[in-house]
Write a structure and sequence with these properties.
Elements (H helix, E strand, L loop, with lengths): L1 H17 L14 E3 L5 E3 L7 E7 L4 H15 L1 H4 L1 E7 L3 H10 L6 E3 L3 H8 L9 E5 L5 E6 L4 H9 L2
Parallel strand pairs: 3-4, 4-5
Antiparallel strand pairs: 1-2, 3-6, 6-7
Length: about 160
C-alpha cells in the first residue's frame, strides 16, 4: 500500500514539472476585425493596453450625432487618461464618409454595416439601442455598457470608475 501511495505522489509531482504549459488564448477583441474608412482591417485588440470606449452609431441617428462632440472631447484628453475612442458604424462606408465631410472626428471609425447590430448585441446591447457604448479596460475585458446617448461627464465618470 505504501508503494502505491508513493507512486501516486511521484506521478502527481512529476506532472507538475513535465506538463506542457496551458495554451494561450487570444483576447476576444482580437477576433473582432472590421475595415476602417481606408478599407484597412482593424482589430479591436490593436489598441490593447489602453482603456477603450467603443461607440456603436449611425449617421441617421440624432442621439448619435448629438454625442459626437463628447466623444471628440474625450479623445482630446486621451493622452492623460490612456483612453482610445473607437466608433463602429452600423451602416455602409459611403454614408459614413459623406457624413464625416461635415462632421470631422479625431478617432478611428470602423465599418460594420448590418453586422454591427449583432456585434453590439454580443457586447451587451440587449435593447438593440443606438447609440450604444462599451467600456473596455486595459486588459481587454468589458467593464460597463451604456445604451442611448451619453454625455462627456458620463463618459469620464464611467472611465474613472472600476
Amino acid at each position: 500500500m505504501s508503494i502505491a501511495i508513493a507512486a501516486l505522489l511521484l506521478g502527481l509531482s512529476s506532472q507538475h514539472f513535465f506538463s506542457s504549459p496551458a495554451p494561450e488564448t487570444a483576447s476576444p477583441l482580437a477576433k473582432i476585425v472590421l475595415p476602417d474608412l481606408s478599407d484597412t482591417p482593424r482589430s479591436l485588440a490593436d489598441w490593447s493596453g489602453k482603456k477603450r470606449v467603443i461607440n456603436f452609431w449611425a449617421t441617421w441617428c440624432p442621439p448619435c450625432r448629438k454625442e459626437i462632440p463628447a466623444l471628440i472631447a474625450l479623445q482630446n484628453n486621451s493622452t492623460t487618461d490612456n483612453v482610445q475612442v473607437i466608433s463602429i458604424a452600423i451602416e455602409d462606408k459611403q454614408s459614413v464618409q459623406s457624413f464625416l465631410k461635415d462632421y470631422p472626428i479625431n478617432f478611428p471609425v470602423l465599418i460594420a454595416g448590418d453586422d454591427g447590430i449583432t456585434l453590439s448585441t454580443k457586447m451587451g446591447n440587449r435593447a438593440n439601442a443606438v447609440p450604444f457604448t462599451v467600456f473596455i479596460n486595459e486588459d481587454g475585458a468589458i467593464q460597463k455598457t451604456h445604451a442611448g446617448e451619453i454625455s462627456l461627464l458620463e463618459l469620464q465618470e464611467l472611465i474613472h470608475t472600476n
